[in-house]
Write a structure and sequence with these properties.
404 residues, alpha/beta, Rossmann fold, 2 domains, seven-stranded parallel β-sheet, six-stranded parallel β-sheet, 15 helices
Length: 404
């Protein structure tokens, strides 16, 4: 512990993009300062770097060669650079003598757990946001990734999963035992709130749209996982039924040029607006009419909670952990994975039926406030840290896994 008697915690992640970085930012900033001395370690160059530094918490950039700004890292780090990063992390952990090292994301999670073990950190906790060896990864890489994660279990005190789905996948693939993982659902930094007419008009004016234009949002990385291309393929059918409809894609990624080319090829380039990363997501979410979630795979999707906080219906595919968050027919409309025609149909339903959209949105907000508040998420982590630290050294396993 620190001289003040507070528990020293390191929250360690890779590039600060997506739900894992959102979760880390929320958790680190909300851990009670009177009990926890919290530091954040990150691999610089991500879109949330600025917001993380704005928390006022100590920040270690263990990959300063990436630069600053959005995605300065163009290619994966090579082995020499990864070794440098590992040595920086290990030296920092040894110097600070943390009580808890809580890692996030695959590469950072591997380096951080091994470094913390070698430095004698008593609690080495890993957050399961996703798996490097998911079913979409071709063999033999998939099996290799799973073997690596099993080996990393030797350096891991305990796991946290953001959904029952992600826990069950790991258990099924024998990457850990059920008693080695605790399910703590995600939350959202967004507070429940509604947009004024001025808020709705402001976003549409920025995009050059009429103030009454129906607006569909996709928020996330423009990568294969998030299915921006699938949403674009649904746009012609949506526009045929709702001629004034438009789509705003908030995010960036390696597939952006392909998505833009697809929109042009389908004749809907004027209906699809790609804004890049933004820091006014709450304003955007409250100003749109519906969130589209056409993900090919998704363990949870924090963006669902952001839509629910804004009382917006979610329309997407019922993949992996999504049905744990979005209740089909109650808080949103879900269709089978990849069913573009069904996605278009459901988007048209909520855009043309204001009563349905309002009912789904209101139910989503109630669900968010009842089950996914920041307070409950942070409280569950505090209880877990306390319990793991109370075991004393040498008691790596044996916790009874449970959903909180």
């Amino acid at each position: 512990m620190s001289r003040s008697g507070r528990i020293r915690v390191l929250q360690l992640t890779g590039i600060t993009v997506g739900g894992s970085a959102e979760h880390l930012l929320q958790l680190a900033s909300l851990l009670p300062a009177d009990r926890f001395d919290t530091t954040i370690a990150l691999s610089g160059g991500g879109p949330l770097d600025e917001e993380i530094r704005a928390t006022g918490l100590p920040v270690l950039d263990y990959a300063p060669s990436h630069g600053t700004g959005h995605f300065k890292q163009a290619t994966p780090d090579g082995p020499v650079e990864l070794v440098r990063q590992f040595l920086r992390i290990r030296a920092h952990i040894r110097e600070r003598r943390y009580d808890v090292v809580h890692t996030h994301t695959s590469v950072a999670g591997a380096m951080g757990r091994v470094a913390a073990w070698s430095a004698g950190t008593p609690v080495r906790l890993h957050m399961l946001h996703a798996y490097a060896g998911h079913d979409g990864v071709p063999q033999p890489r998939r099996s290799a990734f799973r073997l690596v994660e099993r080996a990393l279990g030797l350096f891991t005190t305990h796991y946290v999963a953001g959904s029952r789905f992600i826990r069950d996948v790991g258990v099924r693939n024998r990457q850990f035992r059920p008693e080695d993982v605790t399910v703590i659902p995600y939350s959202s930094r967004m507070t429940a709130g509604d947009a004024s007419e001025a808020d709705r008009a402001r976003l549409r004016e920025e995009l050059g749209l009429p103030v009454d234009a129906p607006l569909i949002a996709l928020v996330g990385r423009i990568e294969d996982q998030k299915g921006a291309d699938l949403l674009v393929r649904a746009v012609p059918a949506v526009v045929a039924a709702v001629p004034a409809a438009h789509v705003v894609v908030v995010g960036d990624g390696t597939r952006r040029a392909e998505v833009e080319a697809l929109a042009a090829a389908l004749g809907v380039a004027d209906r699809v607006h790609l804004t890049g990363w933004r820091h006014d997501l709450a304003d955007v979410m409250r100003a749109v009419d519906v969130l589209a979630l056409p993900s090919r795979w998704e363990a949870f999707g924090i963006v669902n909670l952001e839509a629910m906080a804004a009382a917006k219906p979610v329309v997407g595919f019922a993949v992996e952990g999504i049905p744990e968050v979005v209740v089909a027919g109650e808080t949103g409309l879900l269709s089978p994975a990849g069913a573009v025609d069904d996605l278009a149909r459901d988007l048209v339903r909520v855009l043309t039926d204001p009563e349905l959209a309002a009912r789904l949105g209101a139910a989503g907000r109630r669900r968010f406030l009842e089950q996914f508040t920041p307070e409950s998420m942070v409280r569950a982590h505090v209880e877990l840290y306390d319990e793991l630290l109370s075991r004393g050294p040498g008691r790596r396993r044996g916790r009874r896994g449970r959903a909180r």
